[in-house]
Amino acid sequence: MTLSLQQLQEARDALATPLFAGLAGDVEVSFEFFPPKTEKMEETLWDTLTTLAPLAPRFVSVTYGAGGSTRERTHATVARIAAQTAIPAAAHLTCVDATRDEIDEIAQNYWNAGVRHIVALRGDPPRAGEKFAPHPGGYANAADLVTGLKKVAPFEISVAAYPETHPDADCPESDIENLKRKIDAGADHAITQFFFSPEAYFRFRDRYAKAGVTAPLLPGILPVTNVATTRKIAGSCGTDIPQWMNDLFEGLDDHPTTRQLVAATVAAEMCRRLYAGGVRHFHFYTLNRAELSFAICHLLGLRAKAAASPALQENAA
After folding, report:
1. What is the pTM of this model?
2. Rounded distance, CA 151 to CA 162, Å?
3. What is the pLDDT of residues 211-232, one digit of tens each?
4. Which domains does the chain have, with CATH numbers?
5. Are the C-beta atoms of 296 and 267 separated by less than 8 Å?
């Protein structure tokens, strides 16, 4: 990776001063949530959104279960955010277990509800251990889905990227080519799967640029509090969990507060190194909890805007 003079200066500053001293607060952030299953979980999600809203996120997104298993809950959550807050809300949408007409109808319903942003994904098979197979009459892949969504309405569209290569790809080069097809189909930017090495992102960014892709590439950040759970998720998306991370969390199973401190430290340091490499937009996988993402944003120099929180709370009432 070739660093600019500004990035070299950033790197020198990171080594010569306290790690988070003097940051300009010139970052943008976005947050991902999953749809709540119960009233209590919905209350937690709304509390989380209320806490994070003063950071003025560029958008917030809501995930979509395999085979559309959370379709109604995803729609209800995204529609509520769109109706009751000023935060741009993005809905995840997949190709799994639905025809083109069904997906187009879902997309049109989102547009009618005021949702202008879709995270377009191929999606995981509805049953564990199976290979993905397009639904008869459905969209074949994410690039095909992007093309279809653009015909429904002029959505802003995000797509997924895999710094350590999607498990179904036969090589890193073909994975990049697949991502390029999604961008060429009309996607506005890509959001990476989570990773735990800045170098993994930087190497991927170089390959991305070399392939002629110029759309923004947002790094996905997962602050880890449970390594065992993270390992299960990582196995399905090709993310490597380094041994040093296992070592850091060893012995903390019964110490949740300490786990949070360690998790915030690890994620914040990685974000600082990404910042030094020119990253200015971070996408956080929040797991519907605000504390770690909020703390990392604060360390990166982002400050809450006091007026945003009361307005959101009033709308939520």
Report:
1. 0.88
2. 26
3. 999 999 999 999 987 777 777 7
4. 5-316 (3.20.20.220)
5. yes
